[in-house]
């Protein structure tokens, strides 16, 4: 049984929306960070889904899969930097609340 | 080569002035020697020319070439009798003043190299005016004498009054010079040339009004330089300079440059260019100056100021003669006046030095016993000035009165009246300063001046006596083919004799024979007005200078505070500030809001690309 493309895209859309909502709504910067990862994953899913859907005779279009590999690599790099920043921020402010990052404004 | 010999008149003093200042500013003796040598050399050269040295006309150099011949600015010299004889007056008196300066400036703390450099640069500038063969060159000299006069009036610049006086002289002259410059441009328009020798042929169709305006504009230069009403205010103040400077520049030569220039124009343009209106203006200005200055002089206490006002008054005479188209009489009076007024000033200088720099005549007295030779010389000058028959001033003053008597009896009587007042104030000066007993410490210890001061006085005294007679005047008066009038017993003779006697008697009655301690005429409101120079200077200070300055200051204040500070500086700052406040709500400091904005912006970009 093959799952139609639409299902993948809807799933990817839901995942992206949850991620976006989390980025916009949550205060905890760690959660915001995880939501960002979720949005990247949603993009990956749709890329892979397209790769398979565009393929012929069971052979997918590898371009999209290569792109998704790049995204994974970038996400890994981003995580390493982002986590380091969050740790540094926690050390400085003893908090991971994003609303507390407003010292420049005042 | 010999053709260019006359250029020495200009090159020598200029070179010496440069040497004095650049190389010998620390050794005044060398500077003084150089200056005196240069004055003596130019004087000798002048005598050689008058004695018949012929070199022909000197080369004419094009200074600023333009494409049209007529507008080229030339540097050329005229060597006619008018110029050469004027040069004799300038260099002769210049030489005597240089010599006198040694004695006068002895022991003076100021930089004497600067002083002698100033004298030399004055000799250069004055020679430029006298020898110039075109109006542009005259104008250059005109400005240069203004500059040297500024330098020398302000020689003791650490004295505030001297610095002020120098500034006043320069600025007042600039007012007249502006008119002169306009006149020069009009001359160029009317004649198509500025060269004196080419001015004779005017095209017939020039409106008389234009000629009148041109002549009056040119006369403006003379008003400034010869200190005529209403620009006379600088000359009495110029007495702040050293006395030899007053003698050379502010009595004998520079102030006469205006008269010389007008006569030069009359000779080269022809008297018919001087329209009736223009002549009337010139004569009236001269008459006003003569009368006003003479009246003011009667209430001056400073010996130099009395002489300064008398110079003004005599210049008024000369200008009157110019206006009456009697150029010869004007030059005759200029020439005699140069000798006897230089004598009076140098005499006053000697008296001032010997009275320990006391200038107030009421603090002198009894000088005739202490310095008889100087006083005698001074008296010779006085007799010439008040026109005692037989002295030089008598002949020249009579020549001017003669020029007026037929056509302009009004000016004749004004002239006669001024002569009476002149006698009055000069007699007053002599009675007060020379007779009686010393009224101050300085005068008690007065003594005869040294040789460097007395010898020039003797030379000038000789000239004051003999320079009016034919055997001297015929050869030396700066006018083409001049013959001295000599004695002739007509109406003029008796009137001027009457004026002389009137002035003498009045002065002796009022001031007694040296017994007065104070001026019996002082105290009433007329005397106060005269002592305040008829409030003309005060009027200029308050109304013209103060008014103009305040008015200008207000305008500049408005531009500065309202436009520049208010609109440009503060306005820009205000605008930028407002825009900043308006945009600052974007920087809310909330991470979510930034994310939101970023997301929306991304959406916007996608929408734009998709569309």
Question: How would you describe the overall organization of this protein?
Answer:
The complex is a heterodimer of chains A (106) and B (611). Helices cover 75% and strands 0% of the residues of chain A. Chain A has a domain at 28-97. Chain A is built from three helices and no strands. In chain A, helix 1 packs antiparallel against helix 2 (29-54) and helix 2 (29-54) runs antiparallel to helix 3. Chain A has 106 residues and is mainly alpha-helical. The longest helix of chain A has 32 residues, at 62-93. Chain A has helices at residues 5-25, 29-54, 62-93. Chain B is globular. Chain B starts with 7 loop residues before the first helix and ends with a helix. Chain B is mostly helical. In chain B, strand 1 (61-64) and strand 2 (73-75) form a beta hairpin. In chain B, strands 1-2 form a two-stranded antiparallel sheet. In chain B, helix 3 runs antiparallel to helix 9 and helix 15 packs antiparallel against helix 17. The longest helix of chain B is centred in the last third of the chain and has 48 residues, at 536-583. Chain B is built from 24 helices and two strands. Chain B has helices at residues 8-22, 28-50, 81-104, 112-131, 135-153, 160-191, 208-225, 234-237, 243-252, 257-269, 276-297, 303-323, 327-354, 367-370, 372-385, 392-405, 409-434, 441-444, 451-466, 470-476, 491-511, 525-531, 536-583, 591-610, and strands at residues 61-64, 73-75. Chains A and B meet through helix 1 of A and helix 24 of B.
């Amino acid at each position: 049984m093959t799952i139609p493309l639409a299902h993948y895209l809807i799933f990817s859309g839901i995942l992206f929306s949850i991620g976006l909502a989390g980025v916009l709504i949550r205060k905890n910067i760690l959660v915001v960070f995880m939501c960002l990862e979720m949005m990247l994953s949603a993009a990956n899913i749709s890329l892979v889904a397209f790769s398979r859907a565009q393929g012929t005779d069971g052979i997918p279009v590898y371009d999209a899969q290569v792109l998704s590999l790049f995204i994974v690599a970038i996400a890994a790099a981003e995580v390493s930097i982002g986590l380091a920043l969050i740790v540094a921020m926690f050390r400085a402010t003893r908090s991971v609340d994003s609303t507390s990052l407003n010292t420049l404004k005042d | 080569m010999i053709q260019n010999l006359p250029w020495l008149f200009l090159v020598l003093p200029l070179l010496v002035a440069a040497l004095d200042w650049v190389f010998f500013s620390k050794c005044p003796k060398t500077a003084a020697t150089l200056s005196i040598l240069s004055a003596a050399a130019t004087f000798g050269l002048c005598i050689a020319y008058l004695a018949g040295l012929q070199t022909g006309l000197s080369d004419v150099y094009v200074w600023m070439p333009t494409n049209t011949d007529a507008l080229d600015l030339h540097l050329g010299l005229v060597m006619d009798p008018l110029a050469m004889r004027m040069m004799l007056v300038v260099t002769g008196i210049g030489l005597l003043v240089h010599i006198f300066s040694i004695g006068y400036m002895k022991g003076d703390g100021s930089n004497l190299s600067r002083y002698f450099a100033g004298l030399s640069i004055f000799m250069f500038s004055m020679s430029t005016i006298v020898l110039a063969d075109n109006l542009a060159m005259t104008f250059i000299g005109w400005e240069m004498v203004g500059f040297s006069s500024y330098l020398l009036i302000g020689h003791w610049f650490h004295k505030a009054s001297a610095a002020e006086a120098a500034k006043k002289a320069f600025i007042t002259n600039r007012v007249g010079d502006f008119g002169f410059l306009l006149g020069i441009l009009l001359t160029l328009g009317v004649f198509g040339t500025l060269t004196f020798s080419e001015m004779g042929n005017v095209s017939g169709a020039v409106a008389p009004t234009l000629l009148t305006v041109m002549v009056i504009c040119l006369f403006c230069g003379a008003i400034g330089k010869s200190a005529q009403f209403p620009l006379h205010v600088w000359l009495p103040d110029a007495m702040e300079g050293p006395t030899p400077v007053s003698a050379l520049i502010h009595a004998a030569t520079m102030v006469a440059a205006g008269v010389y220039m007008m006569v030069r124009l009359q000779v080269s343009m022809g008297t018919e260019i001087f329209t009736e209106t223009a002549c009337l203006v010139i004569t009236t200005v001269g008459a006003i100056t003569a009368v006003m200055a003479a009246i003011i002089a009667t209430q001056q206490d400073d010996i130099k100021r009395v002489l300064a006002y008398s110079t003004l008054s005599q210049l008024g005479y000369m200008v009157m003669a110019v206006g009456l188209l009697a150029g010869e009489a004007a030059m005759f009076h200029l020439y005699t006046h140069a000798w006897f007024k230089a004598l009076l000033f140098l005499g006053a200088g000697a008296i001032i030095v010997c009275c320990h720099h006391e200038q107030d005549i009421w603090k002198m007295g009894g000088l005739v016993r202490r310095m008889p030779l100087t006083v005698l010389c001074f008296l010779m000058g006085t007799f010439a000035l008040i026109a005692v028959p037989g002295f030089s001033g008598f002949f020249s003053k009579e020549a001017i009165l003669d020029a007026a008597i037929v056509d302009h009896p009004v000016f004749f009587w004004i002239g006669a009246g001024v002569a009476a007042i002149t006698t009055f104030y000069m007699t007053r000066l002599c009675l007060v300063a020379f007779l009686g007993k010393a009224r101050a410490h300085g005068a008690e210890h007065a003594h005869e001046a040294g040789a460097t001061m007395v010898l020039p006085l003797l030379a000038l005294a000789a000239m004051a006596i003999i320079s009016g007679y034919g055997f001297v005047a015929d050869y030396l008066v700066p006018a083409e083919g001049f013959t001295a009038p000599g004695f002739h017993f007509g109406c003029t003779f008796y009137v001027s004799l009457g004026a002389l006697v009137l002035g003498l008697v009045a002065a002796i009655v009022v001031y007694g024979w040296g017994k007065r301690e104070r001026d019996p005429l002082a105290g009433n409101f007329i005397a106060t007005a005269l002592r305040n120079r008829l409030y003309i200077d005060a009027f200029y200070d308050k109304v013209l200078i103060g008014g103009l300055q305040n008015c200008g200051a207000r305008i500049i204040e408005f531009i500065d505070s309202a436009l520049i500070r208010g609109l440009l500086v503060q306005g820009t700052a205000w605008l930028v500030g407002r825009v900043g406040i308006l945009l600052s709500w974007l920087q809310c400091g909330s991470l979510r809001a930034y994310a939101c904005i970023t997301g929306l912006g991304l959406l916007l970009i996608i929408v734009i690309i998709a569309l």
